[in-house]
Amino acid sequence: MSIEYIRSFIAQDMSIVDNVIREKLHSHVLLIRQVSEYIINSGGKRLRPALVILSAGAFGYTGKFHYNLAAVIEFIHTATLLHDDVVDESELRRNRETANALYGNAASVLVGDFLYSRAFQMMVEIDNMYVMQVLADATNTIAEGEVLQLLNCRDPQVSEENYLQVIRFKTAKLFEAASRLGAILGNATPEEEKAMAIYGMHLGTAFQLVDDMLDYSGNNQDIGKNLGDDLTEGKPTLPLIYAMRMGTQEQANVIRKAIEDGGKDGFQPVLNVIRQTAALEYAKKCAEDEVATAMAAISSLPDSENKKCLLQLASFAVTRNH
């Protein structure tokens, strides 16, 4: 089973989700429509909404609320991207100019706020307090993760534990919420819902670990952004943390200075140290461990095509090049 099979398996469902997204993006304010449509239609993987669809299907859900929740998840994710790119001063995402580069920082922040508020309007329509609690908690945790990451920037003393905490808050929490929501709609048992939450959390962690690896091992066209952006922004990601821990004092100093200074000048020397210390191999092993935990969490769920797709999605998280 391949990622293409998964896309084909849920293609009809995702087409409905896309229709919901287009409908709910409507605003009488032209700039809101322009910016939100630009970022929504810029070629994202739609993994998070796919998790809602697959999770709901795994528990036999036959209603229509999962389409709205999948769109809600995508709106929250898109809002974080809009805000992220402003904070990081990014110019390229998914091989296209970022919204802030095209429309300006003010428009990006304000349209991100619109998407958050529209997501909460859609939650209310579902009329399920537990669903609202899961999404409200997730959104709050993501915001905490954003602030933690901001505090970590330009700080070479960040530990692996602190780095992982940022990932679990900033990235993995929305994966967890997406997986959990499908189980809630499908009336899963508390144990099954917890299994889906664990799956989503560890899948999201693995996904971000691979993203951080690709910043030092991918190519611009595949990953859709400039190689070395994390270093330019002074982000101490796992390859850097491990290389500083395992390298010589001289090698550690090269990375420490690059994190503190930011910019692109130190990229090649840092890349040399990463390769010399096998830091990417270590990060890959950590991602594989996360995926193994994710897959084990749902191993006891009833067999179904949806479950097979969820397991394959976990494999894709660590084998992808973009």
UniProtKB/TrEMBL annotation:
PROSITE patterns registered for this protein in UniProt: POLYPRENYL_SYNTHASE_2 (PS00444)
Protein name in UniProt: Octaprenyl diphosphate synthase
UniProt xrefs under Gene3D superfamilies: Farnesyl Diphosphate Synthase (1.10.600.10)
GO BP, one annotated term: isoprenoid biosynthetic process
Cofactor: Mg(2+)
Role according to the record: Supplies octaprenyl diphosphate, the precursor for the side chain of the isoprenoid quinones ubiquinone and menaquinone.
UniProt cross-references to CDD domains, sorted A to Z: Trans_IPPS_HT (cd00685)
Keywords: Magnesium, Metal-binding, Transferase
Domain of life, per lineage: Bacteria
Organism in which the protein naturally occurs: Nitrosomonas supralitoralis
A single MF term (Gene Ontology): metal ion binding
Protein family membership: Belongs to the FPP/GGPP synthase family.
Enzyme Commission no: 2.5.1.90
Keyword Metal-binding: yes
